[in-house]
User: Which sequence fits this backbone?
């Protein structure tokens, strides 16, 4: 058994690298990142009385490179951010921005009106408004007197 020192303040990238190393040790040398890098955009999901609103941060992605689908209450946002052309004359000291394909799926808790879904893309933020179906909206029930 190997003991590994625990560092509670590790950042997520370090944890991801450790997980990749574990998979490589278990399955042999893998080329997950080199074959087709994937990343997931950060999202906010807001529920109002009438709608679900999903906001995704996808800066540097053109709206033509984004595909939104809804299948059996699963909303999927996918696309690709192209890699910038690097000049040989430049020296890169740090590269952290993710490029390549991305995909993110969310299961909606109730039915939505598919025909009224709207998507807007502004300043790198994709906003999807999904109107709730009438049967999913909360209703007040009146109490009858005797």
Assistant:
């Amino acid at each position: 058994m190997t003991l590994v020192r625990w560092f509670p303040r590790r950042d997520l990238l370090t944890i991801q690298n450790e997980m990749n190393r574990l998979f490589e040790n278990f399955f042999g040398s893998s080329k997950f990142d080199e074959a087709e890098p994937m990343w997931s955009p950060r999202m906010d999901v807001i529920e109002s009385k009438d709608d679900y609103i999903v906001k995704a941060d996808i800066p540097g992605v053109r709206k033509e490179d984004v595909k939104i689908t809804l299948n059996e209450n699963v909303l999927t946002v996918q696309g690709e951010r192209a890699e910038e052309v690097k000049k040989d004359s430049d020296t890169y000291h740090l590269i952290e921005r993710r490029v390549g394909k991305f995909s993110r799926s969310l299961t909606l808790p109730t039915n939505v009106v598919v025909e009224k879904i709207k998507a807007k893309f502004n300043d790198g933020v994709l906003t999807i408004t999904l109107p709730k179906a009438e049967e999913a909206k909360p209703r007040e029930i009146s109490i009858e007197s005797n």
